Amino acid sequence: MTCTNATILVVEDDSIIGQSLVDHFAEHNQVHWRKDIATAREAILVEAYDILLLDMHLPDGEGVDLLAMLHEAPGSPQAIIMTAFPEHQMAVRTIKMGAVDYLEKPFDLEDLDLVVSKAIHQAYQSQHTQLQQRTQHSPLDKIVGTSAEITSLKQIITTVAASPDTTVLVTGETGTGKELVAQAIHKLSPRSDRTMVRVNCAALPPSLIEAELFGYEKGAYTDAKRSRKGYVEMAAGGTLFLDEVGELPLETQSKLLRLLEDKTFTKVGGEKEISVNARVVAATNRDLETMMEERTFRSDLYFRLNVIQIALPSLKQRPDDIEPLLRYYLAHYAQRLGKEAPVPDEGIIRQALAYHWPGNVRELRNFTERTVLLGEFPSLLANATGSIPATETPRQHQLKTLAELEREHIIASYSQMERNKTRTAAALGINRLTLRKKLEEYGIRD
């Protein structure tokens, strides 16, 4: 099976065919089966389906009647027509009415898998376009995933956002989406009409961090020819997002503690207390409790920041979201770069699920951007970051001929597809005859 986590509606009156389709797709997908137009129409209006497998001739009407109402359905179901009575004019008509493909019965399950895989990809692209149109009204849509972890996370964000003065600490590995969470909290809060100011504490030089955060008065430094606002003052009325808060020097931590306790601060070189009303959202990939024990992070500041802690799961802790994220970002970069995104086949999905993604969503996002730019998936996700295997030196890697690289790529793909020529040819973008000749050339025979 080439798709997972899809919601599929089978509309087929033949009990044998219908049950076969349900059995084929049910292991990795949610599959519903209806035998006539009336019950299918009810299902389509209630459930957001990704794929509609539609028989053309049904007991109470023609399948084409359902195509006319797909614009009323929640989501963007991709319709695939199935018929034992192929008619060229009818095929053209169904495609014009919105069907994405047309299969003649009896069809090979491998052919069906390829068609469904492409349709799933189109569904994700369509959903991505709709998502972009809704994003300004629904900031949570940028946090992609349907796993229990992400569902719970969105509920927590919604609850926390409603309390505009509560300090939040977001923790998690690099690349898990801490800034996205901070943005969602801000945009869903009563402070959304004011600015969210992001400060990367790790990027500021220790000698300048206090001046950057709190500002300085004229004459505070040799080159301070005028007074300047800091990030804290710029965030007045809005949200101050302190990314990598664990990197703050101890002397700056004490000043931040005062800001959290009294809502006041003084500029560098100044004496006047300045009041500021801003929500503080802090984020870190460090273990602050260990830093407290090592006396590199103040315990009183930790407890002030840790009013509400949102701990983000790593990508490997939510595997159900890997395929939706992969398809989402493929669609995102295809639209952004004006290119057609490669369709992930079963082998790519299997590799993505097996890979441990140490860089989390950020690494997956970079992987999809490279994929769209190059027009193909790398044969091994071990090379997803663009690194060269440890057993080879860069010079050795460069010395390989194109023929050698092609041979390695084809053999690896053939192995990943479990020696299935149809799927391998589709993944490589070549026909079966070309693949067979290449395999014979490499001495690989069934």
TrEMBL record:
Residues 7-120 form the Response regulatory domain. The keyword Transport does not apply. PROSITE patterns: RESPONSE_REGULATORY, SIGMA54_INTERACT_1, SIGMA54_INTERACT_2, SIGMA54_INTERACT_3, SIGMA54_INTERACT_4. Residues 143-373 form the Sigma-54 factor interaction domain. GO terms for biological process: phosphorelay signal transduction system; regulation of DNA-templated transcription. SMART domains: AAA, REC. The modification 4-aspartylphosphate is found at residue 55. GO terms for molecular function: ATP binding; sequence-specific DNA binding. SUPFAM superfamilies: CheY-like, Homeodomain-like, P-loop containing nucleoside triphosphate hydrolases. Coiled coil: none annotated. Keywords: ATP-binding, DNA-binding, Nucleotide-binding, Phosphoprotein, Transcription, Transcription regulation. This is DNA-binding NtrC family response regulator. The lineage of its organism: Bacteria, Pseudomonadati, Chrysiogenota, Chrysiogenia, Chrysiogenales.
